[in-house]
Amino acid sequence: MDLTAAHLRYFLAVADELHFTRAAERLHISPPSLSQQIQQLERRVGEPLFERTSRHVALTARGAELLPMARAAVAAMDDVVGWIDRGREPRRTFRIGIAAASELSNALLATVVERYPDVEWQIRSLGLTESLPAVQEGQVDVALMFSPQIPEVDGLVVMPLWSEDRVLVVHEGHRFADRESLSLAETDDETFIGIRELGGTQEWFVDPRPGGKRPKILPLAAHFDEVLQLCAAGVGVNICGSGAAQTYARPGLRYIPVADLPRVTTFLCYQASRADELVDAFARLAVEVAAHRDGPPAPAAE
Q1: pLDDT (tens digit, 9 = 90+) per residue, 152-206?
Q2: Predicted local distance difference test score (pLDDT) of residue 294
Q3: What is the pLDDT of residue 2?
Q4: Which of 171, 173, 168, 191 is nearest to 260 (CA)?
Q5: Are the beta carbons of 158 and 272 closer than 8 angstroms?
Q6: Which helix (H) or strand (E) segment is 29 a member of?
Q7: pLDDT value of position 174
Q8: Which sign does the torsion angle of CA 200, 204, 208, 211 carry?
């Protein structure tokens, strides 16, 4: 058996507490696991380090000899670890804003985490209208946002990544639930569940319609999960990207393609002035994932 610093830490905890249960609690392990580790150390030493009875635990003569050396060895190891940590550059924090998750955005996140394990990745959920302001105000380093058309904002890089059809989300008992597809005009009389922050007019539902009709919109939800809950309850319907049928699949909902709506695109947005090596790398991987729609790209070669 190889002797490790962990064995010495276990030994010191028992030597300090002279009680296996208290030592195990201090080490956040179970008493049987601690006993097993001490037994391994004793086999390596060749004789007992503790006298154990039903009433007390005490160091043997050999254990008493080991005690100061174990303290010195563990302290030296702590010094080495501290020296290593002090010499490391602080981890870079990278903030990604996402308006709505999809299988491709999940694949992108999994890829960047694998490629850059030393980066602290933070995910921030954004409302449908929050992506561009969040990037402009520096709340996130990059944002993934949905839009039927490319947004044009001074100072921002906006890259189209992948597109998808749009679908009508309805309760499983809705009159359209068994349809294979439908037209936008057929939804004119539906009640749409919208986002509260957007109020009663929401471009996503094509308001106004080509014929001038204004759809009825109930701005009841704070985010997309709440939209789906209200649709599943039969309060209204919603229009979203077709990827939601997989990412947000849940009992009680149906996703029906709207045949005559233009596709919606996921864009990557970031400030041109704040682009650095990691932002550029994230953008490259986003394009790479978009090009491998059947799965994430393979890990980088060693």
Answers
A1: 888 999 999 999 999 999 999 999 999 999 999 999 999 999 888 765 556 778 8
A2: 44
A3: 75
A4: 168
A5: no
A6: none
A7: 96
A8: negative
Question: How far is it, in rounded angstroms, from Cα 217 to Cα 225?
Answer: 17
| 5-17 vs 20-27: helix crossing angle, rounded to 10 | 130
Task: Take residue 56 and report the two structure tokens written for it.
Answer: 């007390």
The DSSP element (H or E) to which 163 belongs, if any, is strand 156-164
Q: Which long-range contacts (CB under 8 A, 24 or more apart) does 74-80 make?
A: 74/5, 74/8, 74/9, 74/12, 77/5
Per-residue pLDDT at 231:
95
pLDDT in tens, 68-117: 999 999 999 988 888 887 777 667 899 999 987 788 888 899 999 999 98
16, 23 contact by CB (below 8 A): yes
Helix 277-291 and helix 103-115, axial crossing angle in degrees, nearest 10: 130
Prior bond of 148 cis (ω within 30°): no
Residue 91: DSSP 8-state: P
The residue count of the chain comes to 302
Pairing of strands 264-271, 253-257: unpaired
pTM of the model: 0.63
d(CA 223, CA 216): 19
Distance in angstroms (rounded) separating the CA atoms of residues 123 and 134? 13
**Cα distance between residue 148 and residue 249, in whole Å:** 22
* Separation CA 270–CA 272 (nearest Å): 6
Tell me the CA end-to-end span of the chain in Å, nearest whole number: 32
How far is 169 from 256, CA to CA, in rounded Å?
Answer: 7
The sign of the CA dihedral 158, 164, 165, 167 is negative
